[in-house]
Give the backbone structure.
Amino acid sequence: MASFQVQPPEKFTFKPEDWLKWSRRFERFRMASGLEKESEESQVNTLIYSMGSEADEIVQSLSIAEGDQKKYDVVKKKLEDFFITKRNVIFERAKFNLRSQQEGETVDVFITDLFNLAEHCNFGVLREELIRDRIVVGIREWNNGLGELEGEYEIKLKELPEPFALNVPRKVPFPMLDKTKKEIERMLKIGVISKVDQPTVWCAPMVVTPKQNGEVRICVDLTKLNKSVLREAYPLPSVDFTLGKLSKSKALGHVISSEGVSPDSDKVKAILDIPVPTNVAEVDLSWKCLISVPILALYDPNKETKINADASSYGIGGVVLQKQENNEWKPVSYISRALTDTESRYSQIEKECLAFTWACERSSDYILGKSFSGETDHKPLVPLLTTHTLDQIPPRIQRFRMRLMRFNLEKMTHVPGKQMYTSDALSRLLKPFTKPDCCTVPEDDMNAFVETVINSLPVSDKKLKEIIEAQEEDEVCKKVKQYCLEGWPDKHMVPDAVKSYWRERGELTVVQSLIMKGTRILIPSCMRLNVLDKIHEGHLGITKCRERAKQS
């Protein structure tokens, strides 16, 4: 075994307050170097030599009996009595109880000093509790005002910037005038702004807006100034992006462990507090699976990835999963949101397509730039997102399909709903919709796209209105519309008159009160003869007539 020489501690300062610290270091040296196994005389000589040149005179002045001068414990005890005077416990405890965190002192320094003061207080078994109580009492109150960062930030301007100074200040309404003055004085006091008593070439307008609590918020319109500023572009990473970079690392916190990311107990408790189920589908969830503490795997861009998504009548949810070394699929991210009022009126297949599209866009940090697979429990959706061309699918699904084009969707698979319990639960256990996220398509954009598709149909507005009215009066069409909006039942539960539409259910949608199969209009029975006559006008032949029928 390789040996090394242990160096003795630095020379003693001969200051009484340093004795305890130095003697502890010497004891460690004594054990590490094997000195404790040597003769006591050798230990005494090493102690005196390590202390320094003044130690000899001090030892001689201690009047140690001749027989005890070679005993290590006796000599060390005499030195301790010399350097450490008898402490007044009451005084030491008073110093401890008066100790508070000082201005500019860090918490670490404050706590360390409390431990040092407690050394001389003889607290016994209460030592840890009394230190804890002193920390609570002595810690400085956190400043509830506006904090400050050290240093100054230098704003870099473009070459030959064009200064802008406001000529006419914006007026403040009389009801807000007093509150505005009060807010300006407050901002001056805490250092947010400072007075300018001389002309300046840069002056931006002040904007005063009322707050919900009755106060005012003062802002500055820096539009003109920003045109002359050189921007420092730095994209702030999201939590998902940061966690993705922690693959194969061991970090504790968030809660991140070497095995992945796990939710804390509060999040598990939230599942237990879910409201009472309101329908059969909500009762049919695997509650034990939800209550158990799952582990989120750390994202690895080199692992096989898939997204499964599901939609309920009022929400959508999805899960990003990755295949681990043991061939087990583990979740990387859970996502969900409630449907908007407009989205809740989509047909079921449109909701399912919306769920998958939104899940992909919401998880773009994980899948953009790499191939992945998708899973859905809605079997008719699979060909619409894979084999069908754009002109064969309904307008809204066209829009969703176009939004998915930037992703490398390798394959789309149907999975029975009973095997997609996680995304199914996420789509049902939701808070009401409040505000759109970054991946929610504005309703105006979707409506504009759908209207464009409808307007491109080879049918006049008058005829289109007649078809919609006829669909609303036709019993079969009313049943088809109901199934499109609420979901299709099993085939044996469908009335005989509607069974012919069951196999086409994947392409049937309701757009602006119009039932469509892909981009073609469903003609009610009362208008079919009239439409057939229109198709055969001009005696174009079988092939041409079929092509004309397929156009609408």
In short: Residues 457-551 form one domain. The two ends are 89 Å apart (CA to CA).
